[in-house]
Amino acid sequence: MSDTDESLSWFEVGTVEELKGQQCRRLYTPSKQYLALFCVKGSEFYATSAQCPHASGPLDQGDIEDMGNDTYLLTCPSHFYRFDLKTGVSTTGLKLKTYPTEVRDGKVFVKAPELVSIKSIKPLT
């Protein structure tokens, strides 16, 4: 999926206080194209596709490693491919889809192509 910045909108997904206690949460969408929201250091948020581009592994169940210099690597639990949380780049040549995040007035926002929520959303019919 390749989205231009104009095709994305900002969606509030929760407060920093509510989201900082869990390193990763699945974000739900009406089309079931799930995203993953990662929290590092209790206040930095990153959003990616929830599926590994290699074999659709569940990235919302992956591990995050702090590499220093504000670099965090996400490891897919299926085949252990690793992706940079900020850029989506992997040493395998694959690229994970990433989405911009912002914290405003204590609330976390994700810029995505459709509504995202930490709660399940009724699928499109």
Could you give a quick summary of the protein structure above?
By secondary structure, this protein is mainly beta. The protein has one helix at residues 16-19; strands at residues 9-15, 24-27, 35-40, 44-49, 63-68, 71-75, 82-84, 98-99, 101-104, 107-112.
Which helices and strands appear, and what pairs or packs with what?
Elements: E1 9-15, H1 16-19, E2 24-27, E3 35-40, E4 44-49, E5 63-68, E6 71-75, E7 82-84, E8 98-99, E9 101-104, E10 107-112
Antiparallel strand pairs: 1-10, 2-3, 3-4, 4-8, 5-6, 6-7, 9-10
GO molecular function: 2 iron, 2 sulfur cluster binding; metal ion binding; nitrite reductase [NAD(P)H] activity
Protein name: Rieske domain-containing protein
Keywords: 2Fe-2S, Iron, Iron-sulfur, Metal-binding, Nitrate assimilation, Oxidoreductase
Explain what the structure shows.
- The protein has one domain: 3-layer Sandwich (Rieske Iron-sulfur Protein).
- Helix content is 3%, strand content 39%.
- It contains 1 helix and 10 strands; from the N terminus they run E-H-E-E-E-E-E-E-E-E-E.
- It has one helix at residues 16-19, and strands at residues 9-15, 24-27, 35-40, 44-49, 63-68, 71-75, 82-84, 98-99, 101-104, 107-112.
- The longest helix is centred in the first third of the chain and has 4 residues, at 16-19.
- The chain is globular.
- It starts with 8 loop residues before the first strand and ends in a 13-residue tail after the last strand.
- The mean pLDDT is 92.
- Keywords: 2Fe-2S, Iron, Iron-sulfur, Metal-binding, Nitrate assimilation, Oxidoreductase.
